[in-house]
Specification:
alpha/beta, TIM Barrel, 13 helices, binds zinc ion
Length: 386
Amino acid sequence: MTILLDKQVLGYHVWIASEKWKSSCGRRDKCKWQIANVGGVESLISLHWSGRKAAKATLLRVGGVAIIDGGLATELERHGADLNDPLWSAKCLLTSPHLVRAVHLDYLEAGADIIITASYQATIQGFEAKGFSRGDSEALLRKSVEIACEARDVYYGRCKEGSPDGIDDGRVLKHRPILVAASVGSYGAYLADGSEYSGNYGDAITLETLKDFHRRRVQILAESGADLIAFETVPNKVEAQAYAELLEEEDIKIPAWFSFNSKDGINVVSGDSLLECASIAESCKNAVAVGINCTPPRFIHGLILSIKKVTTKPILIYPNSGESYDGDRKEWVQNTGISDQDFVSYVNKWCEIGAALVGGCCRTTPHTIRAIYKTLPKRSAALSSQ
Ligand SMILES: [Zn+2]
């Protein structure tokens, strides 16, 4: 079980947690909840007695900020991967899983609390188009989560060997709860034709089409061992609605976050109202956070203020570097964005006005995440159970 928690929605999240305990052990009466001060941070603790084992504890720290990782695909490219392919970063699941694992590790060592899998553009339909069988395609989706979990295990091993102060050669080696978020990119990302940034799918694509497109993928990722599902770069309202309905229809057992992208700082990229999109996430009981990714930093302040109008859930923010993307050439135009220092100078302001999870998207790197780690005085709102 994994929960992202915030004071205002305490009751709500406890309810999810309780339901989950109930379904996992049928011993709800044996689960206790209490608020305690852990490491100076007010925290919700659940204690779970299961059979002869003493207790399993889930800590949900209230307040503070959790750090999300930085760009995955663009970091893979920076290490030499050629992602000019309809599968984009998911191509590395086939060609260089070791590189994916290494990048996840880099982000953990930079201080990330949440790592996002390489399944953004991994779809059963996309793998089948490459000639993979249904079974192999499903296995590749699971592999994206396995790789991230392996990176977490390796990281924990390094933490044990690391120095007592948790900092080693500039690496953050500090044992802490780490979440694996299974990425689900949009239908437009699968099309790989730029519609992930226009959100325009044409009239033929309906709510039902989108649900059917994502259904099996979401089921598999939900049962893969990931802690949560990250619906990323959601470009329009109909796709947000499809995700929300899928979570309900398929009785998905892990939480999800909904993250939209914007190119004008007001609406989501399709022109649909951000307030309406965020409201869909707000009324989805599986949604534990809502926010914005892959959007220039200069828009984020205003977008947080908008989202706050319609949600009580934790707000997540992981902007891109602000560089422009040339859709025709399929590449980022270098030096059109902001430096890591400038990026970080925004971070505290975003947190002051309500961001609870902060990281980076395309063209941000482990340097960006390390700088965020250093700038945040109190950290971590998101924790997982064992
Ligand atoms: Zn991005």
